[in-house]
Amino acid sequence: MHVLVPFAADRPKTRLDPVLSSAERSAFASAMLCDVLEAIFAAGHEPVVLSTAPPEDPTDKLQTVLSDARTIVDDRPLTDAVNARLDEVPIAVVMSDLPLVTPTVLRRFLEVDGDVAIAPGRGGGTNALVVRDADFSVDYHGTSYLDHLRIAQGIGASVREFDSHRLSTDVDEPADLVEVLSLSDGLARAWLERAGFELDATDGRVGVRRE
Amino acid sequence: MHVLVPFAADRPKTRLDPVLSSAERSAFASAMLCDVLEAIFAAGHEPVVLSTAPPEDPTDKLQTVLSDARTIVDDRPLTDAVNARLDEVPIAVVMSDLPLVTPTVLRRFLEVDGDVAIAPGRGGGTNALVVRDADFSVDYHGTSYLDHLRIAQGIGASVREFDSHRLSTDVDEPADLVEVLSLSDGLARAWLERAGFELDATDGRVGVRRE
Predict the structure, then answer these.
(1) A182/B143 CB distance under 8 A
(2) DSSP state letter for B55
């Protein structure tokens, strides 16, 4: 199956600003994108990167991975850019900031039946979608999980919720780095460790600290 | 299977202090406990409430649910109270603040094989466990998910990770209420709605507001 992977190439991951510089946020976002693309390849599917701009100054690793994946540049807002590409079903949409994803989880997700399959993201979002009904459209603004249930209902499409911590975990804020250091074994985790991050449980609750 | 459900009857859910009064936190914690107990019953298993104290002034609903479940009072710290009861395997431990849990998810979890099955919680924790090796012991302090992997490895026990957003979502902080209002259809959600909470996406990111 084709799997669209939206990627905000300009100013990625601004909410990590308290702990990462702008250049670091770009590098970390690239590492997460690589993890997602490699998991899609390993699951036997075809990633299509849907990027707001050509990746600026990509790492060698990202260049290698991107050389195997199709890349489309579309600078419109996420919802419009995705909706323009939902007419050839089945198709999946998997966010690029899901570094906990594994080939096994992706394979299971992409095989779930239903006209629409949704992996909710923490905070009311939609982290991954499979669309098998060409009348479906996305709306990523706000409470998109509930909005997608309503849109599916409105066109009489069946919906399956896919319950996965790994797919629900998009990395937006410093607290999310705990998940990467606990559960990932990919490039995003390696990047964080090289940058000096480690888990910190000194006050009883788990956070991250940087050396 | 017996399913231990640890419950902190005194001063529950202190991190919800910014949005709920002390009495409200108790009532909300009771609603979440009811949701978890009912899901365990509906999954065909036997909950055993492991409470730090006899529930104070329980709601009618909680009294009804508790009348069907065994309750043990043990005021020791969580780790000690659970370890004292891990010798009769198989046994499961499921936290009481997981209001997204459904009978289907629980049934799948309790059937996962492995000497130890773990559903990681967000933030490095351990939200649910199945123990089939009586040599295993818990340590809930800090990065308990990683600690439990190490403890299992130390006794040569096989481990299975169970990947579930519903089991990974323990409700500790105001931001977690978004998950309850988005994905629960149980008593905890009904309690929040009666208390005037609703989803709020006015600034683009999803939070909760109270009328």
Answers:
(1) yes
(2) P
B163 in reach of chain A (CB within 8 A): yes
Q: How far apart are CA B187 and CA B202, in angstroms?
A: 26
Whole-prediction pTM value? 0.96
- A117 burial level (CB within 10 Å; 0-12, 13-18, 19+): buried
Helix (H) or strand (E) holding B160: strand B159-161
- Counts for chain A of helices (H) and strands (E), in that order: 8, 9
Q: What residues 42-101 of chain B have any CB closer than 8 A to a CB of chain A?
A: none
B209 interface with A at CB cutoff 8 Å: no
Are the C-beta atoms of A122 and B121 separated by less than 8 Å?
A: no
Radius of gyration of chain B (CA): 17
Tokens of B159: 């481990």
Whole-angstrom Cα distance, residue B99 to residue B179?
9
Classify the complex by whether its ipTM is higher than 0.85, answering yes or no.
yes
Each residue's pLDDT tens digit, A107-149: 999 999 999 999 999 999 999 999 999 999 999 999 999 999 9
Picking from B122, B176, B185 by the largest number of A CB atoms within 10 A of its own CB, the best residue to mutate is: B122
Nearest to A171, CA basis, from A22, A36, A56: A36
Per residue of chain B (211 residues), give pLDDT as tens: 999 999 999 888 999 999 999 999 999 999 999 999 999 999 999 999 999 998 777 888 888 998 899 999 999 999 999 999 999 999 999 999 999 999 999 999 999 999 999 999 999 999 999 999 999 999 999 999 999 999 999 999 999 999 999 999 999 999 999 999 999 999 999 999 999 999 999 877 899 999 8
Residue of chain B whose Cα is closest to the Cα of A105: B163
Q: Which two tokens stand for residue B157?
A: 């026990």
